[in-house]
Specification:
By secondary structure, this protein is mainly alpha-helical. Among the domains are: about 30-145, Tetratricopeptide repeat domain (Serine Threonine Protein Phosphatase 5, Tetratricopeptide repeat), CATH 1.25.40; about 275-360, Tetratricopeptide repeat domain (Serine Threonine Protein Phosphatase 5, Tetratricopeptide repeat), CATH 1.25.40; about 360-405. The chain is built from 20 helices and 5 strands. Strand 3 and strand 4 form a beta hairpin. Helix 7 (about 110-130) packs parallel to helix 9 (about 150-160), helix 9 runs antiparallel to helix 10 (about 165-180) and helix 14 (about 240-255) runs antiparallel to helix 15 (about 260-275).
Length: about 400
């Protein structure tokens, strides 16, 4: 009876032996007459220590340990990729290029491995300022691995840094089509900002029709892209379509009240030209009431009240603006101008001095939410991390005399 199971047992033993041999072949390889454990480099304490040092931002120690791990198994591709990347981040670009270029000499690189090496080389060239080489490397990485969204993303950033907005927009359209690595909505917003930049380029070249088309395309992609609304309004106003321009600018106030200062002067002039100066007062009051911390709206309201001969009410708005933006020179200038125009009335001067002394200054006016880069002005694209629409105003919370936050 047992003899009936012998074929089955023999087949099972053969299968198990095949699996064991396959696993051994996967793990070990013959080099110079010796069997080498493929996992040895990864299991090496040098590799683990190198990664730990890298996470702790101890770059020199990370390089030392990863170099040791690479010597354990010179064929460990991932270790050499990481090591080259660490050299690049340390500023040793030529060394990084040397490490990554040496990997291209390997005879049995898979197509995917080749793509990874080209991506790393592209980053090396980009960091070193070799723009043309970086572009070619990223394109080659994409050719080898059509699903490599990161090659496209870095290629787009190179084009943006070179202000090649049309090329950048084409790459972003490819990223949008493959829906990565950002969400489709985020990709569409970035594409809208790129269209706005293309519109500015056309405007600079004197092509108003092309500029208008680009700004409109940007708003079709994402109606919340503020600069496109501002710029399209400018083009429409130049064409004599003031009412359409006003509608766009009022939309900015409604959609992005924290950026309403970009259009308040435009709206003031437009309302005056149409014989409706009171509309500007009403608009500023509405924004200030809905957004009490919007110091720019209060500043604009104060100017409008001063022009209307309502100096006490104007001072109230200026002092409110001062409490929210104590380091803003424009606020102080507005107050000084108003005090001079009203004859330096003692009570008004004392109110200003008290508010100025109690004010707490901002750390910095604007900061990038992505990389914390600071700027003295509102930027649409961060010059450090190159992300779009990430700047906000940063303030220290007001502190009362007893030391508690207000």
């Amino acid at each position: 009876m047992l003899s009936g199971y012998l074929p089955f047992i023999s087949a099972l033993l053969a299968l198990l032996a095949g699996v064991a041999i396959g696993k051994a072949w996967e793990r070990y390889k013959l080099r110079d007459g010796r069997w080498i454990d493929r996992r040895k480099a990864r299991d090496s304490h040098h590799y683990v220590l190198g990664l730990n040092y890298l996470v702790a931002n101890q770059i020199d120690l990370a390089i030392e340990e990863l170099s040791q791990a690479a010597r354990v198994d010179a064929d460990a591709l991932e270790i050499h990729l990481i090591l080259g990347n660490v050299y690049r981040e340390r500023g040793q670009v030529s060394r990084a290029i040397q490490v990554h270029q040496s990997l291209l000499q390997r005879q049995k690189l898979t197509r995917l491995e080749h793509a990874y090496v080209m991506l790393c080389l592209g980053l090396d060239y980009k960091r070193g300022g070799f723009v043309d080489r970086a572009v070619e490397a990223f394109k080659e990485a994409r050719r080898l691995d059509p699903s490599n969204a990161y090659a496209l993303l870095h290629l787009e950033k190179v084009y943006e840094e070179q202000r090649q907005w049309e090329d950048a927009a084409k790459v972003r359209q490819e990223l949008l089509a493959m829906a990565g690595p950002e969400s489709p909505a985020r990709s569409q917003t970035i594409l809208a900002f790129l269209e706005n930049e293309r519109g500015l380029s056309a405007l600079k070249a004197g092509d108003l029709a092309a500029a208008k088309a680009r700004f409109s395309a940007a708003l079709d992609l994402d109606g919340s892209v503020t600069p496109a609304s501002v710029n399209l309004g400018d083009v429409l106003a130049r064409d004599g379509r003031t009412a359409d321009a006003v509608a766009l600018w009022e939309g900015v106030v409604d959609q992005a009240p924290d950026r309403s200062h970009l259009v308040l002067d435009r709206l003031r002039d437009a309302y005056r030209a149409s014989g409706q100066p009171d509309r500007f007062l009403d608009l500023c009051r509405r924004v200030a009431a809905a957004h009490p911390h919007n110091w720019r709206a209060r500043l604009a309201l104060g100017h409008a009240l001063a022009d209307a001969g309502q100096a006490p009410a104007a001072l109230d708005q200026f002092l409110e603006a001062l409490s929210h933006n104590p380091h803003g020179l424009t606020v102080h200038e507005a107050i000084w101008d108003l005090l001079l125009r009203t004859g330096l009335e003692r009570t008004a001067v004392e109110r200003y001095v008290v508010h100025a002394r109690a004010a707490v200054f901002y750390l910095d006016p604007h900061v990038c939410l992505r990389c914390r880069y600071r700027s003295t002005e509102l930027l649409w694209q961060c010059p450090h991390c190159h992300e779009w629409n990430t700047f906000v105003e940063e303030r220290i919370a007001p502190v009362s005399k007893d030391g508690n936050d207000l």
